[in-house]
Every structure is written in C-alpha cells, then in structure tokens.
Fold:
Amino acid sequence: MPQTTPHHPARIQKHILLLLIACALLATVPGTAASQPTIELSREELPDFREVLTGHFSDVQYYYVSASGLDEPLQLAADAPFKVSVECHDGFSPTLTLDHHDGEVDDVRIYVRLFPEAEGTFDGAIVHTSGDAEEQILAVSAVASPTSSRRLLRKRHRDGQ
Structure:
C-alpha cells in the first residue's frame, strides 16, 4: 500500500502567499487585463496656427500621445477641417489609428494641419479613444482668411515659392 505524505499547513500557506504575490504582480504589468488603460497627451491644446488662407493648408503643429494598458488600437478623430498624421508633410486624414505594442504607445508625435475650404474661425477637437481607456481631448482652433491675389503673392514670397 503506497504511503501518503501528510499536508503541512505551513507549506500550504506558503504556496497560497506566493500565489497571491504573483497575482498582485501580474495586475501591475502593462497590457494585462487587470491594469487600467490610460491615454496621455503632451498638451491640452495646440498653439494658434499662423495665417491660413482658404483653399490652402496651414503650417503644421504637433503634440505627443502615449498610452499604456491598451487591449485595442488607439483611435484619433479630428473635427473638420483639421487633419492628423504621423508624418510631417503628408498622410493627413480626419482619422488615425495607432497600433499598440504589448499594450503600449510610446510618445508618438502627431502632426496637425488645418485644411479650410471657407473663411472663418474653426474651434474643434482631436479625440483619442481606445477600449475602456478614458478618452482624451486636444483642443484645436484656427482662423482662415479669404484668399486674395495680393495676399497669396505675399504668402508665396514669404514661403520662398
């Protein structure tokens, strides 16, 4: 008849304690289901855009976005006529999707431009969302002036065109 080893209460308590410690550590690892997803922006609003003429795009402004604990991609949505890109000179769109790596998005530079079709003041937002993370909003504002041939010539001269 095989012999059985009696269970020692101290040994069982030690295993339970180790299991509890492992669970607590796992809960603090970014990208795990137990961690709280967060999105962070480097600023709350962008500085004013310089003179923007209707039918032309503005100078570029930028900010940084980072996130942790994500289970889904980070989505950016800009109010028209603002557009966003991860490239300084092209690829501007009203929406942008950033994939995370192990739940993390590390300080990605986001470029913003205004593409006005009409003159006026434009106040809007760029909304950042991902799953259960609290959405983050960046305020954007710009004024578009009518294009006149004299203003257009001054702008082209100033820009070296």
The chain has one domain: 38-158. The chain has a mean pLDDT of 84. The longest helix spans residues 9-27. The radius of gyration is 26 Å.
